[in-house]
Amino acid sequence: MAGGPTIKLNSGTEIPAIGLGTWQSKPEEVISAVEYALKEAGYRHIDCACKLWSTRHQDVEVALDESLSALGVEYLDLYLVHWPICLNPKGNHPNFPTRPDGTRDVIHDWPIWKTWEQMEAVLKKGKVKAIGVSNASEKILEELLPHVSVVPAVDQLELHLYNPQHELLDYLKSKGIVAQAYSPLGSTNSPLHTDEHVTDIAKKYELSNTDVLLGYLLAKGMVVLPKSVTPARISSNFEGAIAALNKLSKEDVEALDKLAPSGKQKRIIMPPWGVDLGFRNWPGQSPLIL
């Protein structure tokens, strides 16, 4: 099934619901992985981790042009604001500048809507076909949306069985924003892979646990971005996710939905920004209750 299932974005375009994640892959490995995914495994969506870094919020078009040049393409299908945080572009590191005390060098008086104005400008110029955000909570989106002409097409988030972010997903759906799941299988040696409920469902349908973890997210209407550089795993992630999507029942999904609230909640990605982004299940954050 070349391309697999698709999801319609608010821009009117269709996005393949299964993409190959490439974040932190080694350069020599990712080339072969992408080639295999496209030519052999049926993928039509590559998440090449080409995003707007937090130090580039004040020069979006220049940053985008650098990415286009590096990729050798004239446009991107989707361009994301990586984190809704503006870092000092003249700091001591090109991507993660810090202050003398070691904290992140955040520009606190730069509102996210100023970044988004520039995102809309490159969209209008045709340099990107759709624009979105990443790591944006209800709190951040409530600050952004009153100022936009173009609603973000997607919000890429840490989403998996143990960090399902049910309330945020409901909010995104109400705004017509598609959720994309990075780290959909958790981290290396993640307990998700040995969860007894996942194992029971996998056995019932003669699937692997990975199939169930990916199919669960697809069944909830989101894009999944499993990462691998191994041909066999690249293929099995794609084929298994589709198989699980076709086999999981509504009752299966509802049962899996209950695992995190029952005590298995686990967020993995929590950079020390020193900024309240408004996420649930992140120590020190104050979620917006709508």
Describe this protein's structure.
- Helix 1 (27-41) crosses helix 8 (231-247), helix 6 packs across helix 7 and helix 7 (209-219) packs across helix 8.
- The termini are far apart.
- Strand 3 (20-21), helix 1 and strand 4 (46-47) form a beta-alpha-beta unit.
- A 6-stranded parallel β-sheet has the order 5-6-7-8-9-10.
- By secondary structure, the protein is of the alpha/beta class.
- It is built from 10 helices and 10 strands.
- It has helices spanning 27-41, 60-71, 112-124, 138-144, 166-175, 196-205, 209-219, 231-247, 250-257, 260-264; strands spanning 6-8, 14-16, 20-21, 46-47, 51-52, 79-81, 131-134, 154-158, 178-182, 223-224.
- Helix content is 37%, strand content 11%.
- The protein has a single domain, classed as TIM Barrel, CATH 3.20.20.100.
- This is NADP-dependent oxidoreductase domain-containing protein.
- It comes from Hermanssonia centrifuga.
- Pfam families: Aldo_ket_red.
- InterPro entries: AKR, NAD(P)_OxRdtase_dom_sf, NADP_OxRdtase_dom.
